[in-house]
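Hi, here's the filled form for the chain we discussed.

Project: internal
Contact: R.S.
Residues: 321
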Amino acid sequence: MPVESPLVALPVKLNMCLAVVAIHALPDWPLIIAANRDEFHVRPASVSQPWQDAPEILAGRDLKAGGTWLGVSRQGRIALLTNYREPGRNDPDAPSRGRLVEDYLRGPLSASHYASSLQASGQTYNGFNLLLADEDGMWYWSNRAPATRLTAGVVGLSNATLGTPWPKLTRTSRAVSRHLEAIQGSGKTSARGAPDTETLFNIFRDPVAPADHELPDTGVGLERERMLASPFIISESYGTRCTTLVLKRADGQIFFHERRYDPSGQASGQSDWLVDTRQTANAAISAISAISANSANSAHFVNSAHSANSANSANSANSVS
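And the returned structure, exactly as it came back:
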């Protein structure tokens, strides 16, 4: 049963998120992202899909303020946004942070150049963290911390600066690391040594909060710290709306999986997509209807997303036109 959220009376918007990024942790998978989007359930948003006005972009959409929290482009750009938690420092007239992701995905700038372009304009936004990736690597940029180029390894991001050791971030980062280390140590061939999507989804569906003495003190009060402390948040008004996996393979294919949840924490739908950056045609972003759990060679393309009951993995099937 969902519990009533202590955030109900909170006057400012909180868009809590949790992300773990693995760079060159597996030989054939140079970039792996797993992330939870936490938000008020009444805030309208579209499911992740190619945008009608920008079909080269695959992302969800904030239907209230515009922009998005995580997206991929047909050119192989990837961007992810989290808000920086700092009660009492929220400007209601500041521009939407979701536009930062949209502008990068739409624009021509490289990840490093886009991060540099935010040095001045970024200060007009409320606090945020931004991860930007392209074929040359991944950058972290925040208007609360210096820009950093990410190197090989596993790192986590929530609503403080990169790698801040909040318990939920430490727990999920370690769990993802253990999963990838198990694959790497298994001696599997690269075709089989893919991250397992169900394992990653389960890691991010952890509703257990840490003990009170482990909680961070971010200024929201003990009751709210408790409610926000688990990797997966369940309440009637505010909680984890979706988990998204972005799995980039060395051959240029990007597998994008979004599993959505209702206020009770039950899966309510799923979308699975393949972005083939090797292609330039409009068909380079394709929905995946049924993905085998055991290989990573290809995919079965269709024109619509499917429900959470379909089999899912980054692993493989047969492509058709």
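Let me know if anything looks off before we file it.
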